[in-house]
C-alpha cells in the first residue's frame, strides 16, 4: 500500500494511455488522447499536454460495458446520481479546456479499437478507481503527509482529495470460486506485488513485454517453444481425421483436435520463458493404435520481433503442420494481453487438403488489483479452400458484470460454402456441444474428462544431458531448477545470465542477419518454412536428430554420435516402465488439473504418466 500511495505522488506513473473515440452530446465520435492515472482520467486533443480537454474524477464514477453494433469495444463512465464527473480545473490549473464539441456532464461513452484493448481499459479503470480508495485510507491515517512534488502532481492529488469527499462508497471485490474459474485465478503475494509496482513505474503503457525483463515469479518454468507442443498430446485425432470420408466429418475431427490443445494449463497464471534466438525444442508422441509417431520441432527464428517457427509431421498417418507465431505480449498496468499473431497450415497428405488455422488471444487481469484471472478471447478460423469447409469459433471474455457460468465460453459455426452445417457452443476448458443444423441432433464434440485425459499420448523428450546447448530444457535448466526450488533471487540471476549472453551475441553480430538452422523465410508468402520437409524428418547430418523406424534415436553433438533406444512394446509399457536413456514423455510442470505428478529425468528409466 505504501508503494501504491507513493505512486500517487509520482506524476510519471501512467497506468495506461492511448487514443479512444469519445461520444459527445451530438452523438458523434471524436478521437482524443486519454491518459489514465490513479484516480483520474486526463483527456487531450493530442498526445502532448498542451491541449487539455478535461479531467474525469474516477471515484465519482461507475463503470459499465456497453454493447457495440460496430467494430471495437464500448464502455461508459457515469455518475450514479447524475452529478458532474468533471474536475473544475486541469492538471496545470487550466480553467478552460480545448473542447471540440459539447461533452455530457454526468457520463461519457468511449470506444476502443478492439475488444482486447477495451477489456484492458476496463481493467485499468478498475485499478485507477481502487487507487482512490487507497488514497482515502492513507489520507485518513496521515493528513499532514508529504504532498510535495511537481505542480502537476500537487494538482492531481488535490483533485483526488476533493473527489474523495464527494464519493464515499467502498468498492468490494468479489472473488468467484466456481470450478471453471478457480483453476485460472491466483493470489499474488504483497512482496511480489511490490515487484510489479516497481516494474510498472519503469514501463510505458502498452509496451511490448518481449523487450521487458519480467519477474521470475510470474514465469511458467518452461520455454514458449515447449508450450506450443501442448496441442499434440491428442494428435491421434488428426490420424482419425485423415480417414474420415466426408469433408464435414474431417472438419469436425480437426475442430475436436483443435479444442484438445487448451485444457492443459499451468496452475495459476504463468507466462513461459521468452525463447532465446536460435533456441530449439524437439519431441515426439508415439501412436500405439497406428504404430506411428508424430514428430515436433520448433526454433526461435527471430528475437525482435519474437517469432517462433514450428513443424509437425506424421507421414505414416498422413498429416503435417507448419507455421510460425509472433507473440505480442503487452502490459497495461492491471492487465496483460498476449496476442499470438500467425497461423498454422495443416496438410492432409493423401487428400491434398490444407487447413489454415488461427489462434485466440490471452487476457490476464487483476495483476495489481483484484484476483488474477486468465481468459481467452477473439475469433479463430479453420478454413479449407479445397472443400469450401469453414469453421469460425468465438472465444468470449467474461462480461464485466457476468457470473461464473459466463467464464471460458465459446460459440461458433461450421459452414460448407454459405450453408451452415452445425453450430458449436460450450466452454473451451470443459464440455463443448455440436448441434446439426438440418436434424437438430446434438452431440458432445469435446469433453476433456478423466477418460480423455488418460488417452493422452506419451510425449518423448531427449535426455537433458544429451541435448545440445541451445535446446530449451538444457538452456533454461538452471532457471527452471531455481523456480521449482522457489528461489526467486537465484532464478532472476540465472535468467539475467542468459539474457545478457543473448545481448552480447547480438552486439558481436552487429548488422549481420541471423540465419536460422532449421527454417527459412519465404519472401513471396511472408512465412517461415521448415527446410527439410522433403527428407526424412530430422536427418542427423542436417538438423541434429533422427527418429529411426526401429526405435533407435540418434543425435549428433559436435563430432560425437550418441545412440540410445526405447521399447516399442507399448502393451508392456503400460505395465512396466522400459529401460532406456530417454526422458519423461511429459515434463514435470505443475498443472491445474493435477496432472503434474512427480517425475524426473534419469539415465536408466523412462517414467510414463497420463
TrEMBL record:
Any Pfam family:
PH
Q: Where is the PH domain?
A: 13-130
Q: An example of a Gene Ontology BP annotation on this entry? A: lipid transport
The cellular location(s) given in this protein's UniProt record come to: Endoplasmic reticulum membrane
Query: How is the protein disposed in the membrane?
Result: Single-pass membrane protein
**Stored InterPro entries:** OSBP_sf (IPR037239), Oxysterol-bd (IPR000648), Oxysterol-bd_CS (IPR018494), PH-like_dom_sf (IPR011993), PH_domain (IPR001849)
Q: Where is the composition biased (Polar residues)?
A: 564-586
List compositional bias (Low complexity) regions by residue number.
597-610
Question: Isomerase as a keyword?
Answer: no
Stretch list, region Disordered: 556-610
Q: Which GO terms describe its cellular component?
A: cortical endoplasmic reticulum; cytosol; endoplasmic reticulum membrane
Q: What GO molecular function annotation could you give as one example from this UniProt entry?
A: cholesterol binding
Keywords for this entry?
Endoplasmic reticulum, Lipid transport, Lipid-binding, Membrane, Phosphoprotein, Transmembrane, Transmembrane helix, Transport
Q: Which family does it belong to?
A: Belongs to the OSBP family.
Specify the protein name: Oxysterol-binding protein
Organism equals Cyprinus carpio (Common carp)
Amino acid at each position: 500500500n505504501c508503494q501504491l500511495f507513493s505512486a500517487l505522488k509520482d506524476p510519471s506513473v501512467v497506468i495506461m494511455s492511448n487514443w479512444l473515440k469519445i461520444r459527445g452530446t451530438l452523438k458523434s465520435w471524436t478521437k482524443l488522447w486519454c491518459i489514465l492515472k490513479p484516480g483520474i482520467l486526463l483527456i487531450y486533443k493530442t498526445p502532448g499536454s498542451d491541449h487539455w480537454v478535461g479531467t474525469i474524477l474516477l471515484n465519482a464514477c461507475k463503470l459499465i460495458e456497453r454493447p457495440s453494433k460496430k467494430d471495437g469495444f464500448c464502455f461508459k463512465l457515469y455518475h450514479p446520481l447524475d452529478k458532474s464527473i468533471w474536475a473544475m480545473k486541469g492538471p496545470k490549473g487550466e480553467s478552460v479546456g480545448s473542447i471540440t464539441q459539447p461533452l455530457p456532464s454526468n457520463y461519457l461513452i468511449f470506444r476502443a479499437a478492439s475488444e482486447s484493448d477495451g477489456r484492458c481499459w476496463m481493467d485499468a479503470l478498475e485499478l485507477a478507481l481502487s487507487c482512490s480508495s487507497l488514497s482515502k485510507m492513507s489520507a485518513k491515517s496521515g493528513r499532514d503527509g508529504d504532498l510535495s512534488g511537481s505542480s502537476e502532481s500537487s494538482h492531481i492529488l488535490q483533485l483526488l482529495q476533493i473527489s474523495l469527499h464527494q464519493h464515499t462508497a467502498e468498492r468490494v471485490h468479489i472473488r468467484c470460486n466456481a470450478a471453471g474459474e478457480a483453476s485460472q485465478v491466483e493470489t499474488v503475494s504483497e512482496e511480489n506485488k511490490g515487484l510489479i509496482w516497481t516494474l510498472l513505474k519503469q514501463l510505458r503503457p502498452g509496451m511490448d513485454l518481449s523487450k521487458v525483463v519480467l519477474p521470475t515469479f510470474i514465469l511458467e518454468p518452461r520455454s514458449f517453444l515447449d508450450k506450443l507442443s501442448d496441442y499434440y498430446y491428442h494428435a491421434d485425432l488428426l490420424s482419425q481425421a485423415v480417414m474420415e470420408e466426408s469433408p464435414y466429418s474431417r472438419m469436425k475431427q480437426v475442430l475436436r483436435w483443435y479444442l484438445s490443445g487448451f485444457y492443459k494449463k499451468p496452475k495459476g497464471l504463468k507466462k513461459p520463458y521468452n525463447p532465446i534466438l536460435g533456441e530449439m525444442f524437439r519431441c515426439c508422441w508415439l501412436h500405439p493404435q497406428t504404430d506411428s509417431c508424430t514428430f515436433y520441432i520448433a526454433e526461435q527464428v527471430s528475437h525482435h520481433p519474437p517469432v517462433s517457427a514450428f513443424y509437425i509431421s506424421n507421414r505414416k498417418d498422413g498429416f503435417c503442420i507448419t507455421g510460425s507465431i509472433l507473440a505480442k505480449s503487452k502490459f497495461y498496468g492491471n492487465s496483460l494481453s498476449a496476442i499470438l499473431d500467425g497461423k498454422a497450415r495443416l496438410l492432409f497428405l493423401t487428400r491434398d487438403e490444407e487447413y489454415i488455422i488461427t489462434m485466440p488471444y490471452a487476457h490476464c487481469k487483476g495483476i495489481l488489483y483484484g484476483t488474477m484471472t486468465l481468459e481467452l478471447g477473439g475469433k479463430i478460423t479453420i478454413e479449407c479452400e479445397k472443400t469450401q469447409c469453414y469453421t469460425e469459433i468465438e472465444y468470449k471474455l467474461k462480461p464485466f458484470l457476468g457470473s461464473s457460468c459466463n467464464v471460458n465460453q465459446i460459440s461458433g459455426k461450421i459452414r460448407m460454402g454459405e450453408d451452415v452445417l452445425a453450430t458449436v457452443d460450450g466452454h473451451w476448458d470443459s464440455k463443448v456441444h455440436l448441434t446439426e443444423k438440418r436434424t437438430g441432433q446434438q452431440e458432445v464434440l469435446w469433453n476433456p474428462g478423466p477418460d480423455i485425459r488418460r488417452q493422452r499420448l506419451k510425449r518423448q523428450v531427449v535426455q537433458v544431458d544429451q541435448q545440445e546447448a541451445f535446446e530449451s530444457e538444457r538452456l533454461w535448466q538452471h532457471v527452471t531448477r531455481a523456480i521449482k526450488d522457489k528461489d526467486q533471487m537465484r532464478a532472476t540471476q540465472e535468467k539475467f545470465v542468459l539474457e545478457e549472453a543473448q545481448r552480447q551475441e547480438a552486439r558481436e553480430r552487429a548488422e549481420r542477419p541471423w540465419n536460422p538452422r532449421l527454417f527459412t523465410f519465404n519472401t513471396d508468402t511472408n512465412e517461415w518454412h521448415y527446410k527439410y520437409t522433403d527428407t526424412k524428418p530430422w536427418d542427423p547430418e542436417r538438423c541434429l536428430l533422427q527418429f529411426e523406424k526401429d526405435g533407435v534415436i540418434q543425435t549428433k553433438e559436435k563430432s560425437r554420435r550418441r545412440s540410445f533406444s526405447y521399447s516399442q512394446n507399448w502393451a508392456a509399457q503400460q505395465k512396466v516402465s522400459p529401460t532406456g536413456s530417454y526422458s519423461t514423455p511429459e515434463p514435470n510442470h505443475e498443472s491445474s488439473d493435477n496432472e503434474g505428478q512427480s517425475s524426473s529425468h534419469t539415465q536408466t528409466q523412462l517414467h510414463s504418466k497420463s
